[in-house]
Amino acid sequence: MLEGRSQLSIAALGLCSQVNTHVFVDAAGRALLPAIVWQDGRAAQEAETLDSQLSPEQKQAWWGAPVPIDASHPLARMAWVAAHAPAEWEQTRWVLSPKDYCLLQLTGKVASDPVSSFGLVDQCGVYLEPLLALVPGAARRLPPLQPMERVLGLTLPERSRGLGVPVVTGTMDAWSNMFGSGVAGIGEGAYFSGTSEIITLVSDRRVATAGVLSFLPVADWYVHAGPTQSGGDSLRWFAECVGQAVDTVLAEAAAVDRSQGRLLFLPHLQGERAPLWDPYSRGSFLGIEADTGIGDMALAVLEGVACSARLLYDSVAEAAGRSYPFLYLGAVAVSRGCGARFVRMC
């Protein structure tokens, strides 16, 4: 990135990352364990225990909606490490998202932002002490918070050929993807299709809706979002199961007459996140017959993912308190009426 560039040509470096992946590091910034990625459900039991200690009234007051603590929540992960890897937990100084781990490596400084810390902070962006107290030692292992747009520091000389590039704290992937897709104001939203499916909508209000993440307001924006657990990952899984390339599987699906479709697929391969938040739900095919072929199953996988995205959209739109005539797909506006894949396939 720095090849052929001068320091004056770089205004700043900004980072974003998934936030439900966690890196446990010691005081020197060394990772003590492999990162626990967002799809990892090992902390489901710890999440249930923590969630059972919170009332709907507390969740409503803290987050504006009855958001559950699930297996990807940082407190559930901390409780799991404390129970199953006590030596590493004792050495842990910080529990960081991938973005914040990279910030530490680049600048030598530790920080996160309030938006990335959703589920740990209140609607003012302050850590929730009563919540953190549920896991002894959690509070002192969380990074200090500062605004996403603030410069954290300069790159260490050994990380940037001595240039000293300013590094901005940055924020989570859903917000960064939202900006990158073209969303620029209230009444706009985006649909991201990747390993999982993510719907993000911007409004001027918050309507408490179960299963939806309604972030703390920034300026006059209320951003509502939800991630599924398995979107494009379902396609990857099926292609590997049948021993074909993804492009071949897609071609098989395109050759099927959808009007004759009778096969259903539930894409809950590792449980489901928004809007159901059920780590124990599992995927399945329903309606397999003697003449069912790979193309039929491939099409069912695509439609199952599309239907889960539509279910998610309906919940997020309810939280936003309005309808959306179109959504951005990447950097391309896609009409919900005639072009959005996840609506049309439902």
TrEMBL record:
Keywords: Kinase, Transferase. GO terms for biological process: carbohydrate metabolic process. GO terms for molecular function: kinase activity; phosphotransferase activity, alcohol group as acceptor. Residues 8-180 form the Carbohydrate kinase FGGY N-terminal domain. InterPro entries: ATPase_NBD, Carb_kinase_FGGY_CS, FGGY_C, FGGY_Carb_Kinase, FGGY_N. It holds the Pfam family FGGY_C. Residues 191-321 form the Carbohydrate kinase FGGY C-terminal domain. Belongs to the FGGY kinase family. This is Carbohydrate kinase FGGY N-terminal domain-containing protein. It comes from Kineobactrum salinum.
